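pasting for the record
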Amino acid sequence: MQALLETFVLIAMLNPEPALPSSNTLDDYLPIEDDASFPLRHERKIVDCLAFLFALTDDPTKVSALCLERDAERSACTVRVAMNTGVPRECLMSFRKLARALENVAKTGK
């Protein structure tokens, strides 16, 4: 613990006031999209909505993270969810129901 405290003191001596965080817009990183793919801004909206659904609590000790991966052919997506306290079983079951419904719509258009 003493070593950690000493490290903080040294950092504060080197830079007593941290720089303000910079802002990087998503547009700075947008790849050129082809017609077979949905745009990154849509992917971001999907991830934001799914992350909202997985935010089961406002408890800061129960943080969730979500990742959406597209396969190489861009014909499918994988959604990964992690929580620092483990993903509750009922949460996974609800998500699987949602995923099946979305797959059905993608296949049938209904």
